[in-house]
Amino acid sequence: MTPVETLAEVARSLNSARPPADALALVAESIRQGAAAASVAVWLREPGAMTYYAITSPSGPMQVVPSLAAIPLASDGSRADLWRDGVGLGALTVIGGGPDTAALLSVAADILAPYLASLQRAAELSLEVAVQSRAIEDERRFTSLVIDSLPVGLYVVDREYRIRVWNRKRETGTQGLRRDDVVGRSVFDVLTRQPADELRTEFDTVFATGGIREADLEVSGPDGSSWYRITRIPMRLDGDAISHVITIGEDVSARLAMQQHALQSEKLAAIGQLAAGVMHEINNPLATIGACVAACEMRLRDVTGAGVAALLEYCEIMDKEVQRCTMIVDGLLDFSRPQGKTKRRAELARIADDTLFLLKHHPRFRSLTLVRKDDPAVPPVLANVEQLIQVLMAIMLNALDAMEHGGRLGVRTRTGPRPGEVAVEVEDSGAGIPAADHGRIFEPFYTTKPPGRGTGLGLSICYGVVQEHGGRIEVESQPGKGTLFRIVLPAARESA
After folding, report:
1. Sign for the pseudo-dihedral over CA of 56, 61, 65, 71
2. What is the C-alpha separation between 257 and 263, in angstroms, rounded?
3. Where does 116-262 show beta strands of DSSP type E?
4. CA 111 to CA 116: how far, in whole Å?
5. Stronger pLDDT, 351 or 174, i.e. the higher one
6. What is the mean predicted confidence (pLDDT) over 63-89?
7. Would you say residue 160 has pLDDT above 70?
8. 169-190 burial: b if 16+ Cβ within 10 Å, else e
9. Is pLDDT above 50 for 454?
10. What single DSSP character describes residue 46?
């Protein structure tokens, strides 16, 4: 081939759709034939490295050198370096060849240099894309791990109400739906516990206002009800428009219970201070009135006349009312200043039996079915037996009032819900307590009984006695299904 034909063949090989290695092999073969050389090598840099390798004609073992300066050249060889924008891209080397070989290599090198420059730029871009893709994937994985590690349930919906993110806590939550089963679906098809219209309104409000919305939601499960703090946060993916809504659900049942307990303690403390301040002021006039009534009654019994019987009846009524007021004041006294009476080791089962023995004479008790059960493994408690009998008596009398037409009364002792605790439970099959009243039944003077049937001090005093014993009272009740009162006390230590 003439030099012109050789260069034309080189250009055709580079412009073909062949893979780079095949195209360069054809280039080496064309130059070898055109120069009548023994062999030709096209040297180029390895992608992502500083070493150079050779594509040869005829083909032979792979040759690799650390730099352009280290490329071997035979004594009868020729070489032309490949440069582009001042950067050494590789070299052409020929062993043997005719007198025009050097000129042919020079022109061929000018044709090859742009091709090799484009190859190396493509390789660098591919490597850069791979590095960036790996960095993006690592960042995405890190962000996903952070979201999955959150101790709250989190999910994200877009403008079409499709779920885009569903974290691990949501997978293990009360609904237990896997991420692969919900991502991409409509949130209304997945979250069915809340009416779709209400849910849509909450999302639309965040989309429209851009404000954060919070609400407490009660969720019923197999183990009872739990309270969740639902927070909806606007998210802007591009620009100022809200593109997504982030929803976070946090279980706040324990926190709300602690808050209610603290609020209850504050209320009781305030009532206790009030009672302590007024009890003596009330006791004094009550004592005076009682003494006067007693004196009038004694004198009237020595007098005869038409109106004496009526006056005696009035005196008896006043005396009963004074005694009733005195009982209320005594209850306030016990409530506001716990007596701290002597405590001793006692068995809860024995205390429950003693209370039932006193209660068996109540006329309404005879119409009930008593269900009695004790756990023999229950350890003793350190308690004032008389006070605990009063507590159980008050709770059982409330149970009797709730079952006016008969029912079932359950009394049982068992180990407590936490280690080191014991419990005695009183359960009735009465009308139950409305949920709205659960937080108020231990408030002083609050009662659901008709006028004249109770003062509202019973459960508040029970609460104070149990608290003074280091325990607590728990209530479970549903209207129409009865009520369970659970008194939880610390078990007595062995050294006590």
Report:
1. negative
2. 10
3. 153-158, 163-166, 213-221, 224-235, 244-251
4. 9
5. 351
6. 87
7. yes
8. bbbebbeebeeeebeeeebbeb
9. no
10. P
